[in-house]
Design brief:
The chain has 305 residues and is α/β, with parallel strands linked by helices. It has eleven helices and nine strands. The longest helix has 19 residues. Bound molecules: phosphoric acid mono(formamide)ester.
Length: 305
Amino acid sequence: MRHLLNPLDFSVEETNELLTLASDIEHNPKKYAHVCDGKKLATLFYEPSTRTRLSFESAMLSLGGSVLGFSSANSSSASKGESVADTIRMISCYADIAAMRHPKEGSALVASMHSQIPVINAGDGGHQHPTQTYADLLTIRSLKGHLNNLTIGLCGDLKFGRTVHSLVNALSRYDNLRFIFISPTELRVPDYITEMLREKNIPYEEVIRLEDKLPELDVLYMTRVQKERFFNEEDYVRLKDFYILTAKKMNLAPPDMLVLHPLPRVNEISVDVDDDPRAVYFKQAQYAVYVRMALILTLLNIHVD
Ligand code: CP
């Protein structure tokens, strides 16, 4: 039995197969409409979510399966002190596969160690968010046609943004990539990420000004400043509007640059960017459903000819 805790749990070949399956699902949805008849997905969300939880539910329903779960720790027995280990033992009796989000780093790993069913990490604290990464990869691959030979700018809260950490890890296995990390000093990408890039001889830069780097980018990955992970409100208020991408700034970017954002956004992308054809963050949310459908099939070992 396999779990998905980290995007690197899948080899590059397996990742490419997953993305190819997701594209097939996108183009042939009827073929997959009943392949999970009788199967159940449990969504165990100890932390708020709109996209991840609902896109997992949409994914399972689109495969013919059903869903059960909770959307906050307060509405589960976690509020009475039940551990993740005990909860997943119970859930193993109720469902065939589980997607779990939790504010503590490593919680999905703990769940996987006590589970009788595949566990998908739907975000663990500031650590990893592998299914968002696969959605990001599918978006880039579908719209650029490849995942190699790209200059990727990541902008905003690179310290606490788990989607950034997962995405850089996953992309670092493709060829001829260059990363530009754009953040205030306080929200720099963690050292373990830059150390990994240096070990692999992957070029990267760390800069503060977005405008200077926009002309060089194939992909701009914007992120929200993660209010919930700040230790004090004062720092959050000082940094929250550090970057605001506007239609005017988009004039500096190449005509084929893609703007991605895992969402939710707060102020970091002005709504006047939404109609720009390069703004693909809502399409990215649609790709997330296809990739989560592909992941459910892969972890349940269901093959469709
Ligand atoms: N991208 C993402 O994880 O969104 P939610 O927090 O709404 O699930």
